[in-house]
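Need the bound structure for iron/sulfur cluster, inputs here:
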Amino acid sequence: MVIKTFKVGLKYLLRRPYTRLVPDREGPLTSDRTRGRHVLDMSKCTGCSMCQKVCPADAIQMVKVEGPWPQNVKKIFPRIDYQRCTFCGMCVEACPFNALSMTNISGWYLITRDKKSTLYNPEKLSKVFETKEYRITMVKSLAEVQRLKKEGESNA
Amino acid sequence: MSTEEDLLTMLRDRLPKDKVREVNITKWLNKFEIITDPENIRYVILALKGLGFNHLVAIETIDWLKKEPTFELIYYLASIERNGAMVLVRTKIPRDNPVIDSIHDILPFAYYQELENYEFFGITFRGHKGLKLWILEDNWDGPPPLRKDFDSVKYALEHYYKGLRYERGDSNE
Amino acid sequence: MKEVIVMNEEIELFFGPQHPGAPGNVGFKLKLKGERVLDVELIPGFLHRGFEKMMENRWWEVNVVLSSRYCVEDPDNMELGYVLAVDDLYGVEVPEKANHVRTVVAEMSRIQSHLFWIMFMGAGLGARYIPSWAMAAREEILKWYDYLTGHRIYHHYMVPGGIRWNVPQDFNERTLHTLNTVSKIVRDIEEAFITNKIVRERTEGVGVVKGSIAVELGVSGPTLRAAGIPYDIRKADPYASYGKVSFEVPVGSRGDSYDRIKIRVKEIYESIKIIEQLLPKINYEDKAYRLQLPTIPPNGEGLGRVEAARGEHLVHVVNLRSRYPYRVRIRPPSMPLLTTVLKYIVSNEEVTIADFPVIVKSLDPCAPDIDR
Ligand code: SF4
Ligand code: SF4
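Answer from helper R.:
Posting the output first, comments after.
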């Protein structure tokens, strides 16, 4: 009986190790559907506060951002506190104007020594952000997408 | 669904009229519902145990403060011989004097369920020897927390945060 | 003449949450006489988060996010319990596709939970190789969850009225692939661990709960089935798609720790069988996977009863015409395991302090759900 254990154990001894390093990038731990860092489209957000109301972790606060926002009279936008966010995706689902969306970039930006760095202002949520593997840019139209794609191709 | 009706008639026959107010099938998920008075709770549970409903699943309290000043207790009893049929025994006790007989000597698991209801709703179970704070032991001195008139936010701010609110990263707001 | 000193005094020992033999975030107060455990008292509350109160302050659909969080090991069955209760409150029949996918997800959760438990059991018995194998198998399932739901541990994939997203086109192949990998590892574990002589000697005849007394102790799930009672809510009161598949309910005969080990491994195979039966039934063309429900449910009550990996999980919701639940009662499956069952075992047989962790682990309690 115990011999069997040794036999199977030996099989596993010869295998590759299964463990991985926790990456400082969005490596093997994500899939297409992984719920990660939010992106805010400030040209769509109307400041309706739905996302704030739905958030189960109370991670969203509405803050004022000055600027020309014709659709957003009160000029308030969500600010996400990633110390609290659970990445449930409720805010994305609740947003009636599809202003908030999620990327599948997850994890690395939560590793920090400074609590303040996990507080994402609306500007920071909507800006271009770059990781080792991706570069996320918010665009307004499909034409712009095509333009950026072309640029990327010509650069490469 | 004849077995269900059979069970219903059986329950109606076997439980005496003066001890039990109503025996119904609930609107939800076809469970049996027995409404009784708090004085008869031990009798009803014993009778049901004799009928094979000897698996206590849970005891629940609902604080009906918004409708009427009562606590409603629900005993969930299942019968394994009868293929998992479930009976809900419901009874109401007044909110200002929440006392009911304990059933922990009939079904041993009730001991812990009653303990839970005691600490979260302040219901006293007569005959229960070990009523004390159990889950909340050593870090609670407020009123029973699941009652509807208990303001958890206020209590937490006063007792745990010394009146301060949670500060988000930038405190210059 | 040699003098033998026998300690005849009863001592109390705190068997705490940090002890490597403890099953999670709970403590025990043991009354010992020499080596023998005379009495055990559970000390919960190290992880009390007040879920029932918290749920009263959040919207119906948002509570799904909370509902998985009181048991890390078996989150989807917990979600399913809540979601069934809310569906019942709305009085809706969810689309067939959603039912199938819900069942698949819940069964995966059961497999994952049993694997997690194999890890604990292996570590508790000193078989250090088992935990890494079981965790490797569980990792495959977590990857599958990430692929389907977007999260690894807490998935929030079920919503009142269906499932949150449609299943991807390659769902079938991907699931079968995952199951294949998992079942290979489980077979190896069975060969190396379950039939192992040392494991048998440590667990056979230890911690016996047998026969009808188990019913009165309030216990359900694998522990009740090991006691010889073929009770499974999936069969007795079928929810989701369990009425449409055929599977066996493994039953033990002796009710000891070893029976519980065997039954859980058998249940993994049964779960794989259920998923394999359901996969061809999922219609990929079907667009109906989620009902749009009004935000305020009708007045009334709803009940969800689920056979979770550890036993019966019951959720009762009450609504007084509001966006917030009036009351949510959660009866998690682990509470009888560590209270009545342990007390019964300790009072019935001679349990030594060395056997105690093995018995506790073989019951597979999920300590956080006692506190909630
Ligand atoms: S993902 Fe969930 S927790 Fe995070 S901000 Fe959105 S709603 Fe809040
Ligand atoms: S992100 Fe969406 S939900 Fe949130 S305030 Fe803007 S429009 Fe409303």
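Comments: Helices of chain A lie at 2-13, 50-54, 90-94, 122-126, 142-155. Residues 114 and 149 of chain A are 36 Å apart (CA to CA).
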